[in-house]
Amino acid sequence: MPMFGNLVLSGALSSMADDLGIEQRVFDRVAAVYRSAYDLELVACRPDGMIVWRGLRSVAADTPTACAERDQAIRESLRWGEPTFSLTTDDRLVWAVPLMRNAAVLGGLVSQVPASSAAQLNLNRAASDLRRMAEHANVTNAALLESHRVAEGRERTRAEAIHALKSAPQYNLRQLYLLEEPLLAAAIRRNDRGAARHILNKLLVGIHATAGDRFDLVKSFYAELVVTVSRTAVWAGGAPRELLQANMAGLGRLSGIGNEEHLAHWLRDMLEQAMDAVHSARRTDDAATLADAVAYLHEHFAEDLTRDEVAKVGCLSPAHFSRQVKRHFGVTFTELVTQLRVDYAAELLARTDKPVGLVALECGFADQSYFTKVFRRAKGLTPRAYRQRADAMQAAERVRG
C-alpha cells in the first residue's frame, strides 16, 4: 500500500533540506492538506526556528523573536508529546510538531493564527491533526511522542491524586484502602489496565503520605499491595501456580531495591504480570481471541497497523490469525483493513463536509490519489461523486418528509 507515511527521503536534497528531515514535496503535500482542512498555513523550520519552507500564504516572520518563539513551540511539543499553544509577542497563537529522525530533532512543522481568530477554529483538533499528519508522513518519531504523552498523563494523574489527598485530610491510609481496594479488584477482574493503574496511583500517594521518608515501611506497603493484586488475579482466572511463582520471584527482587524509582518500576512490573495472567486465562477459544483482535482493529484501522501487531492483541500467531480472518470474514487481513477504512470514509463523506483530503487522512489513506482509486474500486464511485449522491438522496428525503 503506497501510504503517505512510507515516502523515502531523496538523496538529491540540499544539505539544509536533508538536515531538516523532510523533503519539500512532502512538506508541500502536508501543507496543502492542512490548508484545505483548516485554512491554516505551515512553515518548516530548523530547530532554532529559522524558516526553510513556507506555505503559499504564510506571513510568519524570520525575526530573532519569531524564531525563538517557534523554537520554544517545537521544544514544548517534544516535551509533552503533543503540540501546545503559546502566545507570541505579536498576539498570535503558535504550535508545532518536531521533525525528527530517531531521537534527533532536525526541525519543526509550525503553524500559527491570530489570537483574535482562535475562537472560530477547533485549535485542539487542528494541533492534534498536525501531529498525526507528521506521523503518517514518517517525519517525526511517533513512538517517542506517544511515550511522552503517556508520561505526561501519568504525572497528571499522580498530581491529581496528590491534590485530592491534600484536599481531604480526613482520609487516612486505611480509609483509602477501604475505598479503593474493591475498585482495584474490579478493574483487575475485568482486565481494565488503565483503571487499575489509575487506582494504583491513588494508593501509592496514600502510602507515601503515610510512610514519609521511611523507605522500609514503603516497601512493606508495596509488598502487601502486590499480594492483594495477585490474589485478585487468581479470583479473575489467572493460573495460581504461575502467579505464586511470579510473586515469590518478585518479592525476592524487592529486598534488593534501594530507591523509589526502582521500586516504582518493580510495582508496575508486578501489576502487569498479574494483568497478563488474567488476560491469558481468557484466551480459550479462537472466537474469543479473534473477537479481541478484531475489536482492536476496529479502533485502530486508520493507523499504520501490521498483521503481527493485531494478532498479538489476540494472543494469536500471525499465521493462525490470518487463517481465522479468512475463515470468518472471507478476506485477507489487508483486504479487511481496506474495507474498514473505505466504509468509514463513506460515512464521513455522507455525513460531514470535511475535505476529501482530510477524510482520506483520517481513514488511514495519506495519499489522496490512492484513496480515490481504492474507494472507486470498492464503491463504484469516486469520493466526490459518492458525496454528491449522498447529498442528493438526503435532499430528496427532506422533500418527501
Strand order of the largest sheet: 2-1-5-4-3
Proper CATH architecture of the largest domain: 2-Layer Sandwich
Task: Determine and state the CATH class of the largest domain.
Answer: Alpha Beta
Helix proportion of residues, in percent?
A: 55-70%
Q: Which stretches are poorly predicted, pLDDT < 50 over at least 5 residues? A: 1-18, 165-171
Summed up, the domain count is 3
Taken as a percent bin, the fraction of beta residues is: 5-15%
User: In angstroms, what is the radius of gyration?
Assistant: 25 Å
- CATH topology heading of the largest domain: Beta-Lactamase
Q: Strand-and-helix sequence, N→C?
A: HHEEHEEEHHHHHHHHHHHHHH
SSE topology sketch:
Elements: H1 15-20, H2 24-38, E1 42-45, E2 51-54, H3 64-80, E3 86-87, E4 92-101, E5 104-114, H4 123-136, H5 142-167, H6 173-189, H7 193-211, H8 215-235, H9 240-254, H10 260-281, H11 286-300, H12 307-313, H13 318-329, H14 333-351, H15 356-362, H16 368-379, H17 383-400
